[in-house]
Design a protein that fits this description.
about 475 residues, four-stranded mixed beta sheet, 17 helices, about 35% helix, binds 6-deoxy-beta-L-fructofuranose, transferase, xylose metabolism, FGGY_N, nucleotide-binding, FGGY_Carb_Kinase
């Protein structure tokens, strides 16, 4: 039997899952305990997440994971870790009760806020302090747009989504470091908050919970909840609670591949390099790069590119209009659509908001060749999106290497759900002229499990130890550049 079993709760923008991770003989296997949908909803006048519904799914998933662990002949779960998409937060009252909706980062409330804040703290200064790209949805700008912080009772707080789940599980309040970096208010050194920025945004630092690092124990599952779920008072361990931090930890690279080039491909495509130190110069800021905090003090120097969001939102439009569309068929058709006819810029913030995405992509497309004025069929539109993504990957990875003064890597690792997109992988290999290594697709859950397993002693502490286990645990597909 396996030596330890842990549960990874992984919440994405379109779906969530609770996975059972079994760790034995230097390998991890993942068993899905529960999968569920997640979606943006208009609530109280804002695009929001249904945290109540997610919490119900998480509870169900943890109970299931514990049953699965016992089915494997194990005593139950040895620990639990939680990750989710970055930047969003909930407000909690003194007793830990949720105060109002968790507003989603694609909501319009931050329109113009980054510019207003830049009038108080120049953009150059913000970047020099934090190393974080000034995207409209950074927590700092969401907090600056927040009208619910004044008049809160003493003892209230603000918690990022995975930390909010951690509070619900344990009653403890902490801010996990990797996700804290995405707020745009953490010092690039990681040594605490940039109080100058919190001041400028009108945020009382007392609202923020103390930091916790991946591998540290947050607490244990509250007794009443443990009984309800039948899981025991299991430890909850901080992991790379930013999904991208967990995903990049699970890139199956070798130590000698440094700096590791990656795309974490999901709703977003996060493309860049894993570095030892941030790149804080003006050229990096001007190019729109960010320095996110990783597990074990690594830095992800990357660019946010709209990824499968463009495709999934276009599909949502076609379905609203009564068509029946399914991704696999669409990709097969796109593979046969004529090449190099249309382009868009998938880094354009105009694609941030939801709604009528097929129309918006069509209107934004520039014509490279052919007589058509815009992509007309779904296959042409998807081909336009994927070719544009591949070209953007080439440009952004090249830029990342130039800015970090690193050579172009010999291979590019693509992890996450988007790594299943063979057409995109091949287009990427062709555009870059380097090998694309695809997988694992459940990188985020694997990274989450791996940090817990290491904290439990089931994975060694040596550098590269986690990645060696990941390489043993996954099947990869390699795409060689053509032409
Ligand atoms: C991906 C992700 C990404 C962030 C965005 C808000 O899920 O966490 O790293 O930039 O969501």
């Amino acid at each position: 039997g396996a030596s330890v079993a842990v549960a990874a709760v992984d919440l994405g923008a379109t779906s969530g899952r609770v996975m059972l991770g079994l760790v034995e003989d230097g390998r991890i296997s993942l068993l899905p305990a529960h999968r569920f949908e997640n979606r943006l909803e208009q609530r109280d006048g804002h695009l929001s997440w249904d945290i109540g519904a997610l919490w119900a799914e998480i509870r169900h998933g943890l109970a299931q994971a514990s049953v699965l662990a016992r089915d494997q002949g194990l005593p139950g779960l040895s620990s639990i870790g939680v990750d989710s998409w970055a930047v969003d937060y909930g407000i909690v009252g003194p007793g830990g009760e949720q105060a109002g909706e968790v507003i989603a980062y694609r909501d319009h409330r931050t329109d113009g806020v980054a510019d207003a804040l830049a009038a108080r703290v120049p953009r150059e200064r913000q970047f020099a302090l934090t190393g974080i790209a000034q995207q409209p949805f950074n927590t700092l700008y969401q907090l600056a747009a927040e009208d619910r912080l004044t008049g809160l009772p003493a003892g209230s707080g603000v918690l990022l989504v995975p930390d909010l789940v951690g509070l619900l599980l344990t009653g403890e309040r902490r801010t996990e470091r990797t996700n804290a970096s995405t707020t745009g208010a953490l010092l690039a050194s990681g040594d605490g908050w940039a109080s100058e920025l919190l001041d400028a945004a009108g945020v009382d630092p007392a609202l923020l919970a103390p930091l916790i690092a991946p591998g540290e124990q947050l607490g244990t599952v509250r007794p009443g909840l443990a009984r309800e779920l039948g899981i025991g008072e299991v430890p909850v361990v901080a992991v790379g609670s930013h999904d991208t931090a967990s995903a990049v930890l699970a890139v199956p690279a070798r130590e000698e591949d440094a700096p590791v080039a990656f795309i974490s491909s999901g709703t977003w495509s996060l493309i860049g390099l894993e570095l030892r130190a941030p790149v804080l110069d003006e050229a990096a800021r001007e190019a729109g790069f960010t320095n996110e905090g990783g597990v074990d003090g690594t830095v992800r120097f990357l660019k946010n590119v709209s990824g499968m969001w463009l495709v999934s939102e276009a599909i949502r439009q076609w379905e609203e209009d009564g068509a029946r569309v399914e991704l696999e068929g669409l990709l097969a058709a796109a593979a046969h659509a004529p090449a190099d006819r249309f382009r868009i810029d998938p880094t354009d913030p105009a694609f941030l908001a939801p709604g009528r995405m097929a129309d918006r992509v069509r209107a934004a497309a520039t014509v490279l060749s052919g007589d058509d004025r815009f992509p007309s069929t779904p296959a042409e539109l998807v081909r336009c999106i994927l070719e544009s993504l591949a070209e953007t990957y080439r440009d952004e990875l090249t830029a990342a290497c130039r800015l970090a003064r690193a050579p172009l890597p010999r291979r590019l690792h693509v992890v996450g759900g988007g790594s299943l997109n063979a057409l995109l992988n091949q287009l990427t290999a062709d555009a870059l002229g380097v090998e694309v290594v695809a997988g694992p697709m459940e990188a985020t859950a694997l990274g989450n499990v791996a940090v817990q397993a290491r904290a439990l002693g089931a994975i060694g502490q040596e550098p590269g130890g986690i990645r060696a286990v990941i390489r043993e645990s996954t099947e990869l597909e390699v795409f060689a550049p053509r032409g």
